[in-house]
Every structure is written in structure tokens, then in C-alpha cells.
Amino acid sequence: MKRNEALINARKEKGLTQTELAEQIGCQKTTISNWENGYAKPTLSVAFKLSEILEKSIDEIFFEIKVQDSHTKIDTA
């Protein structure tokens, strides 16, 4: 099992304990621990709620992908 460092870091960046995050999500602390330790993954609806609370994209939290804004310059000359 691979630990979900992105989820752990996102939670800590928000200054939340596993218990506090669990309360906001409406689950048990052990559920958060299982997600962080790679034993389980949340449902899609819960993943969206985590994304909102942690202010990170689902990709950043679960796939360790840094989402960047796309800036495309269109040459009109």
C-alpha cells in the first residue's frame, strides 16, 4: 500500500487533524487514516467534498498531479 502523501500534506496545510477532517466529512477518524495510508479510497462524492474542504483538486489529492493554469498566447498578426 502506498501512503497518500498528497492527502496528508493537504490536510496538514489546512491545519486539520484527522479527527477534525473526519468531522467535516461526516465519517470516522479511522476512515481518514485508511485513505491516508492507502488502504481505501473515498467515494467520488466524498472526494469532491474533500477537494472543497482542502481547497485542492481531486487530481492533486489522489493522483499527485499538480494542476497548472493553461496560458496560451494566440498570435493574431
Please tell me about this protein's structure.
The chain is mainly alpha-helical and 77 residues long. 53% of the residues lie in helices and 0% in strands. It has helices spanning 5-13, 18-25, 29-36, 44-54, 58-62. It is globular and about 25 Å long. The model has no long low-confidence stretch (mean pLDDT 87).
Please give a handful of descriptors for the protein shown.
single chain, about 80 residues, mainly alpha, 434 Repressor (Amino-terminal Domain), 5 helices
Q: In terms of topology, how is this protein built?
A:
Layout: H1 5-13, H2 18-25, H3 29-36, H4 44-54, H5 58-62
Percent in helix: 40-55%
Spatial gap, N to C terminus: 53 Å
- Please state the oligomeric state of the protein chains shown: single chain
Query: How large is the count of helical segments?
Result: 5
Biggest sheet features: none
Q: Per the principal axes of the C-alpha atoms, what is the gross shape?
A: globular
